[in-house]
Structures are given as C-alpha cells and as structure tokens.
Amino acid sequence: MSLKITEECINCDVCEPECPNKAIYQGAEIYEINPELCTQCIGHYDEPQCQIVCPVACIDLDTEYPESDEDLLAKYKRIWSK
C-alpha cells in the first residue's frame, strides 16, 4: 500500500529528494505523498527510503490505498515503462 505523511511532519525536506518515483511533494502545510506514484520503493530499494531518513518517523502506511507487494511492483513497472 502507499505511504502517507502524518501531521507530525516538521517540513525538514529530507524525504522529498529520497523518493525515486517523485511521489513526495510539498502540500499546503506539510509534505504529502501521491498514492498513484508511491510503491514503497519496491523496484528500487528493499525498504522505503523516506521512512529511513525521516527524523520524526511520521511516514506510515496509507490504509486508504491497500495494495500487495505484487500490486506495488506492477505500479513500479507501469511508472517506469513510460
């Protein structure tokens, strides 16, 4: 499933450049993640890079977008086949 950034975000700017799919962007108040582009780094890395670098651990699973690892890999292939 996609990830989401919670309201604990401190806008530190470290997650955005780490996202290989460019799914992270500055929202109205905090950074946000586009669920259409988030693959939890599947296809690129073994674990989500944004979660690794986040100093306040404010990036969680987005239960509104349930996806299996296979779904995320298919999304990765769709994104990068363009």
TrEMBL record:
<keyword id="KW-0411">Iron-sulfur</keyword>
<keyword id="KW-0479">Metal-binding</keyword>
<dbReference type="GO" id="GO:0046872">
    <property type="term" value="F:metal ion binding"/>
</dbReference>
<dbReference type="GO" id="GO:0051539">
    <property type="term" value="F:4 iron, 4 sulfur cluster binding"/>
</dbReference>
<keyword id="KW-0408">Iron</keyword>
<dbReference type="Pfam" id="PF00037">
    <property type="entry name" value="Fer4"/>
</dbReference>
<keyword id="KW-0813">Transport</keyword>
<protein>
    <submittedName>
        <fullName>Ferredoxin</fullName>
    </submittedName>
</protein>
<dbReference type="InterPro" id="IPR047927">
    <property type="entry name" value="YfhL-like"/>
</dbReference>
<dbReference type="InterPro" id="IPR017900">
    <property type="entry name" value="4Fe4S_Fe_S_CS"/>
</dbReference>
<keyword id="KW-0249">Electron transport</keyword>
<keyword id="KW-0004">4Fe-4S</keyword>
<feature type="domain" description="4Fe-4S ferredoxin-type">
    <location>
        <begin position="1"/>
        <end position="29"/>
    </location>
</feature>
<dbReference type="InterPro" id="IPR017896">
    <property type="entry name" value="4Fe4S_Fe-S-bd"/>
</dbReference>
